[in-house]
Amino acid sequence: MTDTTHGRKTGTDTGLQAAWRCAVCGFVFTGETPPKSCPVCHSPSQEFVAEQERARLTYDGEEPFDVLLINGSTHRAGNTGYMADLAEEVLRERGVSYRRFNLTEHHIDYCWCCYAVRAGSCTYPCRNTTDDMPAFHQMLAASKAVIVASPINWNAMSARLKTFLDRTTCMENLYHLKKPGLTEGKVAGVLVNGHEDGAIKTAMDIWLNFEQMGYVLAPFGIGFRTHGSQFNSSTDREFFRSDELVLHQVKGVVNNVIEMVQLGIEEKLKGKLVPVTE
Fold first, then answer.
1. Average pLDDT over the chain, rounded to an integer
2. 146: phi then psi, degrees, rounded to nearest 5
3. How many H helices and E strands in the chain?
4. Do 257 and 141 share a structural domain?
5. Domain co-membership, 43 together with 122
6. Total tally of structural domains belonging to the chain
7. What CATH number does the domain containing 9 carry?
8. pTM over 0.70
9. Nearest alpha carbon to residue 132 among 183, 167, 97, 157
10. Does any domain span residue 55?
11. What is the end-to-end Cα distance of the chain in Å, rounded?
């Protein structure tokens, strides 16, 4: 067995060999199956994906869908991922078309902050066309609703999700440039989980970004659950997967988003809203 941990690779010499990349820290393991846990960041085996050359995400619009489901956590198979799994179950049960994305599996650059240099430079399509965000822009414009799930990191959303939302500035800025908007009247839902405090702040920080793009928050459109600082964080996974309130919160939010979409809110509001954004 070879182990070059900080060189991001290790493996065994028996059986069929494959490369497995930890989606959290990038460590690559070579072996028949992923390791039980990542030796670098200690994430469980579910966070490993088959290593392959990653192509840039594209969306051609040929397969329209209603709901864009975003897992904003660094851990694609953690507690936030579990909430996204539950959301998927409801969408499938209701026969609603959707696409789910785990942000940790995609490459999204930091915002260039073109607006800070010249307002007219921050426009749609985004000037950065080299990463996966242009495809997400297109899907935000094409879908009827977005459901975002996030963990609580230091009383705020995850850094990955913050970067994703920063990159939607070019869509918000369309209104300031007196150009037709692409997102007003669409529906949003927010799901948040964490070890301790900060759920409402995190949810509202996320919602504010979509509000500034003209989204409508579904009634009872925010669901959150925390475990508590009095418990060891290693018990969070078992807690969230056995907690009935988590199930109720997620199913309720997703159902409410679907009901709003099926009312045709976007079409009813088109051309009637007055953009008021920062």
1. 90
2. -130, 135
3. 9, 10
4. yes
5. no
6. 2
7. 2.20.28.10
8. yes
9. 167
10. no
11. 56
- Residue 15: the pLDDT is 57
Residue whose token pair is 């494959």: 18
SS3 136: helix
Helix 159-166 crosses helix 199-211 at what angle (to 10 degrees)?
Answer: 20
Instruction: Tell whether the model's pLDDT for residue 107 goes beyond 80.
Output: yes
Indicate whether 175 belongs to any domain. Answer: yes
Tokens standing for 97? 């078309």
Q: What number is the average pLDDT over the span 55-67?
A: 91
In a domain, 257, yes or no: yes
Q: What is the CATH number of the domain that holds 138?
A: 3.40.50.360
Instruction: Report the C-alpha gap between 140 and 67 in whole angstroms.
Output: 9
pLDDT score at 196: 86
Domain of 151 in residue numbering reads as: 67-269
Q: Are residues 141 and 169 in the same domain?
A: yes
Backbone angles phi, psi at 100, to 5 degrees: -110, 140
The dihedral over CA atoms of 71, 74, 78, 81, expressed in degrees to the nearest 10, equals 10
Q: Is residue 176 a contact partner of residue 209, using CB atoms and an 8 Å limit?
A: no
Give dist(CA 102, CA 81) in Å, integer. 8
